[in-house]
Amino acid sequence: MPLPENITSPRSYRERQARLDRLVAVELPQNRREIQEAKEFGDLSENFEYESARNRERQLLDRLARLQAELREVSPFDYSAAEAGEEAAPGTRVELRYEDGSVRVLNILGLWDFDEALGVISSRAPLVELVLGRKAGETVMIPDPDFDGEFLSATVVSVGPLPAEVVAWANG
Q: What is the pLDDT at residue 51?
């Protein structure tokens, strides 16, 4: 059964929530103090500090709205419950072999997930979007990382379950 589209690991969800909490508890109150202090300098029409603080407030409020929307639209998912099928999908480990014999392993998780050392990659990463739905034995054309307009041929060697250390990272 395919996983819902707008998911991420509990780890990444908590990190995004922590950003929101810091914004609300630290950055916005600090900005309000900066606005108040700048008002005390007098004439607001020529007050650079005031304008700067107000611009910062707009940026912070935009970021607040964006984070709140993201957290409403994306749900944490426990990848230990993911069942690997035959096709590359979130919750699977995919091994690719390039023409030159090199191998790359992709542990595909959710929207906000990334850890280079573990091979964790977002389901929205351009490389993953090319691989999603592929089965072992299928070939996929991948843009050359040197950005020279060439494509590299890669074969999906295997599609399987996520390793325990990746599941632990995601839930950690």
A: 87
What percent of the chain clears pLDDT 90, i.e. is strictly above it?
Answer: 73
Cross-strand partners of 54: none
3-class state of residue 30 by DSSP: helix
Query: Which domains does the chain carry?
Result: 7-76 (1.10.287.180), 79-171 (3.10.50.30)
Which element (helix H / strand E) includes 164?
A: helix 164-171
Report the pLDDT averaged over residues 149-163: 92
Quick one: pLDDT at residue 45? 66
Q: For residue 34, which amino acid is it?
A: E
Question: In the chain, at which residue ranges do the beta strands (DSSP E only) sit?
Answer: 7-8, 75-76, 92-98, 103-108, 120-121, 139-143, 151-161
